[in-house]
Each structure stands twice: as C-alpha cells, then as structure tokens.
Amino acid sequence: MLKIEHIGIAVKNIEESNNLFAKLFACQPYKTEVVESEGVSTSFFQMGDSKIELLEATNPDSAIAKFIEKRGEGIHHIAFEVEDIYAEMKRLEAEGFQLINKEPKAGADNKLVCFLHPKGTNGVLIELCQERE
Ligand code: ZN
Hints:
Layout: E1 3-10, H1 14-25, E2 31-35, E3 40-47, E4 50-57, H2 63-71, E5 74-81, H3 85-94, E6 105-107, E7 111-116, E8 126-131
Parallel strand pairs: 1-4, 5-8
Antiparallel strand pairs: 1-5, 2-3, 3-4, 6-7, 7-8
The structure holds zinc ion.
C-alpha cells in the first residue's frame, strides 16, 4: 500500500459539514460528487498528500445511513492507495481478510475501490483505492 489516500467521515448534513470543515481547514472542498450506486453524496478536501472525504447518505438504505444510525457521525473508513488493486485484493484475500466486494467497483473521485470487512481489521473499515485510467 502506498499511502493514506483519504479518511472518510460520515455526516448527517454535508452542506453544514462542508462549512464546518472549510472553517476548520481554512480551505474549500475541491470537489463534490454524488455516487448514486453507493447512495452517497461526497465532498473532498485536499490535505497535503491526503484528503478528507465527507459522506452523507442520499437514501435511508445507504451504508452511511446505517452507520450513522448505529454509531453516530464520525470516522467511517480509511482509504489506502494501491498500485494494483486486483493484485492487492488477491493478496489480502489469501491472507484471510474478507473483501466486501469481490470485484473492484467505481468509487468517488475517479477511483476503483474495494472495501475490507471491519470485523477482520479491528473494527476499522478499510478501503483500497486505485486511480482509474
Ligand atoms: Zn472513501
């Protein structure tokens, strides 16, 4: 794995949180994007070499809605950039980690992504991501 690409934070209201984090970081999000397939509305703040991703559910069945219902707002996942997501998924599966999706899928910010089940990673939801060509 190359670096922490971003940290995902689940929020109830992305407009309010954009304002809050813009104040905190003294910068505006560089992009906002709805990922319909995941039921999320996202925004990204550049933090040097890494990013902060805010996520708001766009429907009650979204994983973000369920997360907030269970645990409240807060850190939702840590995303690591990988060179070859297919190779890394194969390696981690062979190591006994549970992949939530068996094929890389299209994520926000022009990425291919795969999530590891948090029950195998000390409760931390981990995202692997690779820039799409
Ligand atoms: Zn993410």
